[in-house]
C-alpha cells in the first residue's frame, strides 16, 4: 500500500512554530516514528510552501497511490487550485489538521478541499496523521 503525506506552508517549522498550538516535535521526527510503526506501508512525505508545487505533487501521485493524507495548512482556507486538484485526481484524500480549526478564527472554518475529500481529522495534534493512516488500513 502506497500512502503519501503532503504538508503545506509553514509546516516545515513544526517544533519551532507556535508550540502551544502545534507541539514541540519536528515533522521529520514524527515521520520516522510512523515509518517504524507501519513498516508494511510504503510511506512517503512531501512538504512545500509553494501552492503550485503542492498541486504538481497531487497530480503526480493522484492516479497511482492508494491514499493521500493532506494538511494543506493555510492553503486549506484559500486555495481553489488545490481544491480543484483534489477533485481532479482519483486517489482518495484525507484532510488533516493538527489543531482543531473549528475552535479557532472564523477564516479557518472554511476549507476549499473538504468537499472532495474522503474525510477530515482535525485537532488531535500530530496524532491526526496516524489516525488518517489507520483509516486507510
Ligand atoms: C493547520 C491549521 C491551519 O489553519 C493553519 O493555517 C496551519 C496548520 C493545522 O494543522 O492545524 O498552518 O492546518
Task: Walk me through the structure.
Helix content is about 35%, strand content about 20%. By secondary structure, the protein is an alpha/beta fold. It has a single domain, classed as Dehydroquinase, class II (Rossmann fold, 3-Layer(aba) Sandwich). Strand 3, helix 4 and strand 4 form a beta-alpha-beta unit. Helix 3 runs parallel beside helix 4.
Instruction: Please tell me the overall pLDDT.
Output: 97
Structural class: alpha/beta
Number of helices: 5
CATH superfamily, by name, is: Dehydroquinase, class II
Enumerate the strands of the largest sheet in spatial order, edge to edge or round the barrel: 2-1-3-4-5
Rg, rounded, reads: 14 Å
Cα shape: globular
Number of domains: 1
Q: Are any ligands bound, and if so which?
A: 1,3,4-trihydroxy-5-OXO-cyclohexanecarboxylic acid
Looking at the overall shape, the CATH architecture is: 3-Layer(aba) Sandwich
CATH class: Alpha Beta
How would you characterize the largest beta sheet? 5 strands, parallel
Give the amount of beta strand, in percent: 15-25%
